[in-house]
Amino acid sequence: STVVLVFEAPSDFEFTVHPSQKVKMGERLGDV
Amino acid sequence: IINAWSETPTKWYPLPLAVGALLLVAIQYRKKVKRARQEVELNEDGLEVIRLKGPWHVHVIGALPLRNMSRFWGYINSLELPVWFRPHGLRLYALAFGCNLEEIDPPDLREYPSLGAFFYRKLKDGVRPVDPAILVSPADGTVLHFGTVQESRVEQVKGITYSLDALLGIERPGSPLAVIEHNRDMSVVDDREFAIVNGIEYSLEQLIGSTPPSTSGTQTPSDEASSSTSSSTTLVSTSSGASPEDEHIPKRVGDQVDASVGSDRNAEETLVHDASVALQMGVKAPMESRRRSVTSGKHVKPGNSLFFAVVYLAPGDYHRFHSPTAWVVEKRRHFVGELFSVSPWMAKRLENLFVLNERVALLGRWKHGFFGMVPVGATNVGSIIVNFDQDLRTNLRGRRPPPGAYTEATYSAASPLLRGQPLTPGEEMGGFRLG
User: Taking CB atoms and an 8 Å cut-off, how many pairs form between chains A and B?
Assistant: First the structure.
C-alpha cells in the first residue's frame, strides 16, 4: 500500500528526506 | 588477435553523406516514437484515457483476477487462529517481515485473533513522536519519490509521469460539485483571538484551554457542536458518465446517502479540537471560496508550488496512516480500480500505477492552500479505512465503473468552525486492512 501526498506550499519548501529512505510516522518529511 | 590489434593501421575517413543522413533519420524516428509513447490520449470529455501500459509481465499480472485474489487473501487472514498458535505464528511473521513487537498495543500476541488483526495493529502511545515540522510522514514506510508537480503531471519514477487530474479527479464546470453552496454563516476573525461560528462568539483561548466558551447568540455552542458530530456525509457526484451498479455507488448524480461521520468526541471536545486545528493552520479570515479548482495545479497562489511525496508501506510495516499536518479534509473521492502491487518493482514497470489502482483521494486545505492525501490500495491490502467516514467501503464485489470514475462525499458538516474534517498533525486517520 502507498500514501501519496499532493500539496501546495511556498516555493522554498524543501524535503528533508531522500528517495528509498525509511521513515516512521511523525518523522519530518519537509519544511519551509 | 594481438597482432591484428597492434598492427592494423588506423585510417580515418569522412562518412559518406548518405550514411550521416540515415543516422539523422534514425535519431528523429526514435524521438518520434518516444514522444508518441509519452503522448496523453484524451477521450471526448478531454480526460486522459488510462490504460494498462508496461512490459509483457505487467500485462500478464493485469490478466489475473487481482480483486478476487485480494478478497480471498483477506478472508484467509481473517480466520481465527488457535490461541496456543498465535504467539508462535505471529512471532514468525514478525521475524520474517521485521515487525517490532516492543511497540505494539496490546503487547500480548494471544490477543490478536488473526493475522489480519495483527496486520492492523495499534502502537503504544508515545512510540511515534510527531516532529514539529510543517509536514511529517503519514505512515511508517519508505519514501519512494517526491518532487514538484510540473504541468499537472506527477512523476511516478524517473521519466514516467501520470496525470494529477486523473489521480485526484477533476472538478468540471457545471457539475453538482461546482454549484455546492457553502452558505454557513462562518468566519474566523481577528488574529487568533476569537471566532464567530453561526453568530456565536468563541474565544479560541478558552476553547484551547478546555473551558466552556461564553455565548452571546440564540444558539448554544453545544447545540451547534452536537449537530456537527452527528452530521451526514453526502454523495454528490460521479464523473465520466459512469453508470456504476454497485449498491454503495449512487445510481445518479445528486443521490444522497445518510452516513454518520465517525466521532467519539463530545461537543466541547469537538470545539476544542477544531479550534486547535484552526490555530495551527493560522486561520484568521473567512474561508476562501471553494470554487477555485484546487486539483488542476494551475491555480496555486503566487509564490507557491505544488509538491508531491509517495510513501510505500511494506507488508511488515504498521499499516495505519495519520495526518501529516494540521489540515481540514473537505471531501473524499473514492476511485474503484484495480489492485496491482504498489511495490517499487511494480512502480518502475507499470505506468499509471497510482491512477489504475483503487484509491481514496482526501482533499482539503492547510495553511498554505490545497492539501491532498491519497491512500492507494494494493493486492494484499485492498481495504482502505477512513476513521471519520463510516460509509466508505472499498474492494467490493460487483461491476466496476470505468477508470477515472469516482464517488464523492463531502465533510462540510463535520465541523461548523472549519467546514470540513479538521485533523491535527499525527492524528490517526485510518489504515489499510488485508483483503
Answer: 179
Q: What is the reported pLDDT for B52?
A: 76
Q: Using CA atoms, how far apart are residues B195 and B203, in angstroms rounded to an integer?
A: 6
pLDDT band at B428 (very low <50, low <70, confident <90, very high): very high
- In terms of CA atoms, which chain B residue is nearest residue A28? B136
Q: How far apart are CA B130 and CA B327, in angstroms?
A: 15
ipTM above 0.90, yes or no: yes
Range 2-31 of A in CB contact (< 8 A) with B: 2-11, 13, 15-31
Cβ of A5 within 8 Å of Cβ of B138? The answer is: yes
Contacts of B322 in chain A (CB under 8 A): 25-26
User: B52: exposed, middle or buried (C-beta count within 10 Å: 0-12, 13-18, 19+)?
Assistant: middle
* Single-letter amino acid, residue B251: K
Please tell me the predicted confidence (pLDDT) of residue B240.
41
Query: Cα B326 to the chain's mean position, in Å?
Result: 16
Q: Which residue of chain B comes nearest to A22, CA vs CA?
A: B142
Cell numbers of B268, please? Answer: 466541547
Q: Which three cell numbers stand for residue B65?
A: 483476477
Amino acid symbol at B289:
S
Q: How many CA atoms lie within 13 A of B2 on its CB side?
A: 0
Q: Are B383 and B433 in contact (CB under 8 A)?
A: yes
Q: Look at residue B153 and tell me whether its pLDDT is greater than 80.
A: yes
For cell 461548523, what's the residue?
B416
pLDDT in tens, B158-174: 777 888 888 888 665 44
- Nearest CA among B329, B182, B178 for reference residue B254: B178
